[in-house]
Amino acid sequence: MTKHTTKSAHVLKHQCKDGSGGNQDLGIRQGSQGTGEGCQGTSLGTGHGNLGISQGSLGTCQDGSGSSQSGSRFSQSGIIDLYNKISKLYPEAHSELLEPFRGNPVDVLVATILSQATNDTLSKRAFSELKAQFHDWESVLVEDPCNVEAALACGGLQRQKTKKIRSALSKLKQDFGDITLGPLFDWPKQKSMEYLTSLPGVGPKTAACVLAFGLGKPAFPVDTHILRIARRLGLAGKKQNASSVQNMFENLVPDEIKMPFHIMLIHHGREMCSSRKPKCMSCPLKETCCHAQEAGTLPNEPIEAR
């Protein structure tokens, strides 16, 4: 379980361990992307800063559908405007689940599989128990599956997840002669994505998490919180699936802000844009939100970026 470290010009640098760093102006404008400077550390939090965009107009929410007929209402400049607004609300947002495994793609892979259909608290508990019971991933692969299931029982769905994890680890060993994803550090992003999604139990979201947290490649995983927000904002149709929405974010969100924007949207979905009782009136995105119009918190008028 050797931890890999990598540097990429496309990955946003984050806060120093001593808490220094401050806000950074990434100087991104539509058609011209800069990179943020900062210290690499264990927090994804500070250093998000404003991006200095040239703001553009957004389309109209049509018939309360949550998206225009042509697809997303947002240009890249509109996306960056959303990022600038939400970054003020969550300046120190970070992933408690995956940040500890940054640079270790196999750990990220297993932790993300454990997080499927489970909250972070339970999945973290299951991962910790798995690591406590087995000294390396080879042991998980050769051990009696019942013992692996017992270690994962505290997180739920242990039988299904044991099968997924063991199958994925077996495929890695078959392909690379060892349980590793090390070769992917040198692969292009698309080739890495294609390989990861070929693994048992790995879909686009899990693969993107491994890319972003494990391999240091820019990626935008879409979970249930981000999918809900995208639909409410009119970035996606109400029936548009997560894989399609993830592709949309991959194309619209600049590489430099993919990681922090992903994490901040998850925080926003948990803390403000919840499934049952969203706090629309307190939301900094309400003026660009189709759901806020439908809920009657704003006049039903064409929306423009400010």
What does this structure look like?
The protein is mainly alpha-helical and 306 residues long. It folds into 2 domains: 1-101 and 219-306, Endonuclease Iii, domain 2; 104-214, Hypothetical protein, domain 2 (Endonuclease III, domain 1). The chain contains 12 helices and no strands. Helix 2 (105-115) runs antiparallel to helix 6, helix 2 (105-115) packs antiparallel against helix 8 (204-214) and helix 9 packs across helix 11. It is globular and about 55 Å long.
CATH superfamily of the largest domain: Helix-hairpin-Helix base-excision DNA repair enzymes (C-terminal)
- Helix proportion of residues, in percent? 40-55%
CATH architecture call of the largest domain? Orthogonal Bundle
Q: Structural class of the helix and strand makeup? A: mainly alpha
Number of strands: 0
Span between termini: 48 Å
Number of domains: 2
Low confidence ranges: 2-50, 52-57, 63-71, 299-306
Name the helix and strand elements from N-terminus to C-terminus, one letter apiece: HHHHHHHHHHHH
How are the SSEs ordered, and which strands pair?
Elements: H1 76-87, H2 105-115, H3 120-133, H4 137-142, H5 145-152, H6 158-176, H7 189-196, H8 204-214, H9 224-233, H10 242-252, H11 255-271, H12 290-294
Helix pairs in contact: 2-3, 2-6, 2-8, 5-6, 7-8, 9-11
What's the gist of this structure?
Helix content is 43%, strand content 0%.
Task: Describe the structure using short key phrases.
12 helices, Endonuclease Iii, domain 2, disordered C terminus, 2 domains, Endonuclease III, domain 1, 306 residues, 43% helix, mainly alpha, globular
